[in-house]
């Protein structure tokens, strides 16, 4: 198939767009990036050049609006260097860039573009310690010590940008990221099934890049500009661009001497990004754009561009005929401009009333699809109501609605941990409508009254909030818009009695499953979705020991980090990269998610990430996990009187349409939800439902009981959240460091990748609430390990300084004695049963492997005792983690890890400490 060409005749009527985002100025500690202004100019030129460009000037949306304007040069001259390079703050900052404005531009592009959509970003990027969750940073972005929300005023590629673009109507989506850690976006590249989507990143995952030269732009974008404007003989496609940019960057080095290798992923055939320099200029549009609701912007842009485009085309070959035509063009253009810009007939559409819909992450894609299908238009075809759908973590939504005054009056200060409620940060704009996954979320938000209480209430968010605000909203539950039960999806290769498919509690189903074979029970993060929280509540109640830590550590041993949504969990299993976990994992997910992933390849509705590696699963319906009933909640704000009647009417009309209109209900049933029946309860699946497909004939039940208690579950769920958070921290971490002289002899003590650097770097995940310390294991025989950093609360900077200055000792490392003492320390004192504990042993392997076999067996048995202490052994000797070796056995007995040079030790150790610590996520 030939590559997609936006300038092709078949695409002439389609709407194309490029959203170019450049963040030059930063407040706080981030250095400015003056090269970004030049980058925007280069990208404008590359995409709109007369002969080579695939877009017209009117197809560009540039943020900030004057970014890349050739009327002025870039500011500043100091290029800076290193991973935090850039220009120090100057007296004349560039325009600020707001993430909300960027998100709005992406949402508009998602709705409007039907042809080629290009999104380009240049600025700072940041990730979590384990390399996950790339966040694009904007002018006022900052980093906090809140482990759940470390990044403020940023856009997450995984949670914000990719979901928006995944739902685009465009024929092709091309994203170009020129920022540090751009390659980490590849980990969360998840296009929709059948979507054409290409992602080009400035470098590979984990690589930081220099800030560039203000005069010439960043090296990556400058090279991209050359490729797109100097191609000869044939079009410059995405695949040719990838090959060319890699050749161009090969001689250069990224920060810290890393090879500079741009990376990419592509879903679809290929797409033209530029034409050869000897191509004819873009022809004038012979046909109007695709049918669609006219807007003031598109009408005016067309009127302004029409004379220029037609005149340029006719003047290309001046003849007597074209002279007459030129006169006609002038007259037509004048008449057209009068009609579109000044005619009193009202051809422009007025701005529609905007409704903001907050929903659960598990529901976002379906609710978005329904909102896009909402047909509210006037007699001229203009949309009268615009629906903006966004999602937030379920716990954040509840806490923010309970403290809704903080939307307008955020707390003046936050504690050092950064853990304070900020609805604008945690959720987004003030919603008019809330569609949580289950009525339990509404119960928690309104506990204490219809308008809710405040976030410090134990029944609200599950965590204290002494400075929480008050509720200034009424939350009116109008009814459900769809249903889906929570199920335990069991691979059909596993033995489990069919009689347990309905009417039994979760504990009975899990016990029977584990009695017949090895099984891992998984569910998404209960902070993120209401369904996962309801499942976790039942899991804790059915846990044999009754301890959250038992459940959470078991899950963490099988899969880490835990995905945020049911779809993401299934996608992780579908990639087949987790040692056959996909074959033994029983997953607690909504029925609709399980049904979609059961579909065969090529079937409509099958997720793009689904693969043959993922076993077909049978749904079991726990009687103690409530059904997800998708309540539609009207959110009315105190004092919000402007357009109040119109807004109320629009909200109610949208609800009635969602709950009763066949087209609206089909948006949900096509995604595997159960519709709303005549009496308001769940309807039986229709013949064309995903649930009735051949792939799900034996997997799901058509008739199911409505599960869950009628009583208010908010108190129980709040307790579950508290227990879950207790199982995740604050933590107790003790490093046992082999400082024998062999470490220096083998050159694994100092320098990059050395023991000291590994320990100090991993401490970035430790916070003020954690207790931690460092002990030196090389001591005289019979002596205890010495404290380099005493165990207890410490300042991270002081601990890292002590480690950096540590030296070796002319003794053997007393590994066995050191392990015994360290386990005693971590298990001692009156700490919570759920508190996570971690022992990190770093060694060159010489004294470690010298421990006698009998002593090894004793220590392995000790490692498996309770309270559980996870042991991470870091051996700087090859092969130390092969099955049967001491380090691997210690890790296996404790649910820990064994790391050796075959692993990315720095990243993996940081991730392990992050599971226990509560520190800064930068």
Explain what this protein looks like in three dimensions:
The protein contains 28 helices and 26 strands. Strands 2-1-3-7-8-10 form a 6-stranded mixed beta sheet, with helices on both faces. A 6-stranded mixed beta sheet has the order 23-22-21-24-25-26, with helices on both faces. The protein has a 5-stranded mixed beta sheet with strand order 13-12-14-20-15, sandwiched between helices. The longest helix has 23 residues, at 320-342. The relative contact order is 0.08.
> How would you characterize the largest beta sheet?
6 strands, mixed
| Total beta strand runs | 26
Question: Helix coverage percent of residues?
Answer: 25-40%
Low-pLDDT residue spans: 70-85, 291-327, 329-347, 450-467
Overall spatial form: globular
**Which percent band covers the strand fraction?**
15-25%
What's the tally of helices? Answer: 28
* Strand-pairing-aware structural class: alpha/beta
Radius of gyration computed on alpha carbons: 30 Å
In spatial order, strands of the major sheet run 2-1-3-7-8-10
The N- to C-terminal Cα distance equals 44 Å
In round numbers, the mean pLDDT is: 83
Task: List the main descriptive attributes of the protein structure presented here.
alpha/beta; 15% strand; 922 residues
Q: Which secondary structure elements does this structure contain, and how are they paired or packed?
A:
Blueprint: E1 17-22, H1 35-48, E2 60-63, H2 99-112, E3 116-122, E4 125-126, E5 135-143, E6 151-156, H3 157-166, E7 172-178, E8 197-201, H4 219-229, E9 236-237, H5 238-249, E10 263-267, E11 272-274, H6 296-315, H7 320-342, E12 353-359, H8 364-373, E13 385-391, H9 394-402, H10 423-426, E14 433-435, H11 439-446, E15 473-480, E16 486-491, H12 506-516, E17 520-522, H13 530-542, H14 548-558, H15 566-574, H16 581-584, E18 585-590, H17 591-598, E19 617-620, E20 631-637, H18 644-660, H19 662-669, H20 714-728, E21 732-737, H21 741-745, H22 755-762, E22 771-776, E23 786-792, H23 796-804, H24 815-827, E24 837-843, H25 846-849, H26 853-863, E25 870-875, H27 886-894, E26 897-899, H28 905-916
Parallel strand pairs: 1-2, 1-3, 3-7, 7-8, 12-13, 12-14, 17-18, 21-22, 21-24, 24-25, 25-26
Antiparallel strand pairs: 4-5, 5-6, 8-10, 9-11, 14-20, 15-20, 16-18, 16-19, 22-23
Helix pairs in contact: 1-4, 2-3, 4-5, 6-7, 8-19, 9-11, 11-20, 13-20, 14-20, 18-19, 22-23, 22-28, 24-26, 26-27
């Amino acid at each position: 198939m030939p590559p997609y060409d936006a300038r092709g005749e078949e695409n002439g009527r389609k709407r194309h767009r490029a959203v170019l985002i450049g963040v030059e100025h930063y407040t706080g500690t981030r250095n400015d990036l003056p090269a970004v202004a030049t980058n925007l100019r280069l990208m404008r030129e590359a995409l709109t050049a007369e002969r080579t460009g695939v877009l017209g000037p009117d197809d560009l949306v540039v943020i900030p609006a004057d970014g890349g304007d050739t009327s002025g040069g870039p500011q500043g001259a100091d290029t800076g260097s290193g991973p935090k390079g850039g220009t120090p703050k100057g007296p004349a900052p560039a325009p600020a860039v707001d993430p909300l404005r960027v998100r709005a531009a992406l949402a508009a592009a998602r709705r409007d573009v039907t042809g080629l959509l290009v999104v380009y970003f240049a600025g700072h990027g940041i990730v979590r310690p384990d390399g996950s969750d790339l966040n694009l940073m904007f002018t006022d972005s900052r980093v906090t010590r809140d482990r759940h929300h470390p990044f403020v005023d940023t856009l997450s590629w995984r949670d914000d940008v990719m979901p928006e673009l995944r739902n685009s109507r465009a024929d092709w989506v091309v994203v170009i990221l020129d920022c540090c850690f751009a390659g980490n976006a590849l980990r969360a590249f998840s296009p929709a099934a059948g979507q054409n989507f290409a992602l080009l990143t400035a470098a590979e995952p984990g690589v930081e890049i220099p800030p560039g030269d203000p005069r010439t732009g960043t090296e990556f974008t400058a090279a991209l500009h050359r490729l797109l404007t100097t191609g000869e003989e044939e079009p410059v496609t995405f695949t040719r661009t990838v090959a060319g940019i890699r050749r161009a960057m090969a001689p250069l080095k990224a920060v810290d001497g890393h090879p500079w290798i741009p990376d990419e992923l592509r879903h679809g055939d290929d797409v033209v990004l530029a034409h050869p320099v000897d191509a004819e200029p873009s022809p004038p549009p012979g046909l109007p754009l695709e049918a669609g609701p006219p807007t003031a912007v598109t009408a005016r842009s067309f009127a302004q561009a029409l004379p220029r485009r037609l005149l340029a085309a006719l003047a290309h070959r001046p003849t007597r005929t074209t002279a007459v035509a030129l006169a006609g063009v002038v007259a037509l253009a004048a008449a057209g401009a009068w009609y579109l810009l000044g005619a009193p007939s009202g051809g422009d559409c007025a701005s529609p009333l905007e409704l903001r819909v907050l929903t659960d992450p598990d529901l976002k894609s379906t609710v978005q699809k329904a909102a896009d299908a909402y047909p509210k238009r006037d007699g001229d075809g203009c949309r009268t109501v615009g629906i903006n759908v966004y999602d937030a973590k379920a716990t954040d939504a509840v806490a923010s609605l309970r403290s809704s005054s903080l939307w307008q009056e955020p707390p003046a200060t936050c504690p050092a941990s950064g853990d304070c409620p900020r609805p604008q940060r945690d959720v987004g704009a003030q919603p008019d409508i809330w569609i949580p996954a289950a009525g339990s979320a509404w119960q928690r938000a309104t506990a204490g009254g219809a308008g809710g209480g405040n976030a410090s209430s134990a029944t609200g968010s599950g965590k204290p909030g002494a400075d929480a605000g008050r509720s200034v909203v009424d939350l009116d539950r109008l009814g459900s818009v769809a249903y889906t039960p929570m199920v335990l999806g069991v691979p059909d290769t596993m033995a489990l009695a069919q009689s347990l498919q309905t009417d039994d509690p979760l504990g009975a189903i899990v016990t029977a499953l584990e009695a017949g074979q090895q099984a891992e029970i998984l569910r998404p993060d209960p902070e993120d979705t209401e369904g996962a929280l309801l499942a976790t509540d039942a899991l804790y109640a059915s846990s044999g020991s009754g301890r959250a830590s038992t459940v959470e550590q078991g899950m963490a041993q099988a899969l880490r980090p835990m995905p945020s949504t049911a779809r993401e969990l299934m996608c992780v299993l579908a990639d087949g990269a987790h040692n056959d976990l996909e074959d033994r994992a029983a997953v607690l997910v909504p029925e609709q998610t399980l049904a979609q992933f059961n579909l065969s390849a090529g079937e409509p509705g099958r997720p793009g990430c689904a693969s043959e590696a993922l076993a077909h699963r049978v749904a079991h319906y726990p009687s103690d996990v409530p059904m997800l009933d998708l309540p539609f909640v009207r959110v009315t704000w105190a004092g919000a009187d402007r357009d109040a009647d119109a807004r109320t009417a629009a909200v109610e009309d949208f609800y009635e349409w969602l709950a009763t209109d066949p087209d609206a209900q089909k948006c949900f049933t096509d995604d595997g939800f159960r519709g709303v029946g005549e009496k308001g309860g769940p309807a039986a699946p229709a013949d064309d439902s995903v649930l009735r497909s051949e792939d799900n004939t034996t997997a799901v039940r058509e008739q199911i009981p409505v599960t869950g208690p009628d009583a208010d579950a908010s108190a129980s769920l709040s307790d579950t959240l508290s227990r879950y958070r207790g199982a995740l921290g604050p933590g107790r971490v003790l490093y046992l460091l082999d400082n024998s002289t062999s470490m220096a002899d083998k050159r694994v003590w100092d320098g990059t990748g050395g023991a000291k650097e590994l320990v100090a770097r991993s401490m970035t995940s430790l916070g003020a609430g954690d207790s931690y310390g460092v002990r030196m294991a090389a001591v005289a025989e019979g002596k205890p390990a010495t404290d380099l950093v005493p165990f207890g609360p410490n300042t991270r900077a002081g601990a890292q300084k002590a480690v950096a200055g540590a030296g070796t000792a002319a003794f053997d490392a007393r590994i066995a004695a050191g392990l015994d003492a360290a386990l005693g320390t971590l298990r001692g004192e009156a700490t919570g049963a759920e508190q996570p504990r971690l022992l990190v042993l770093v060694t060159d392997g010489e004294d470690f492997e010298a421990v006698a076999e009998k002593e090894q067996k004793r220590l392995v048995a000790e490692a498996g005792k309770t309270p559980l202490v996870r042991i991470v052994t870091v051996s700087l000797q090859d092969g130390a983690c092969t099955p049967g070796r001491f380090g691997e056995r210690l890790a296996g007995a404790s649910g820990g890890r064994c790391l050796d040079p075959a692993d990315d030790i720095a990243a993996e150790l940081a991730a392990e400490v992050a599971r226990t610590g509560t520190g800064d996520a930068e």
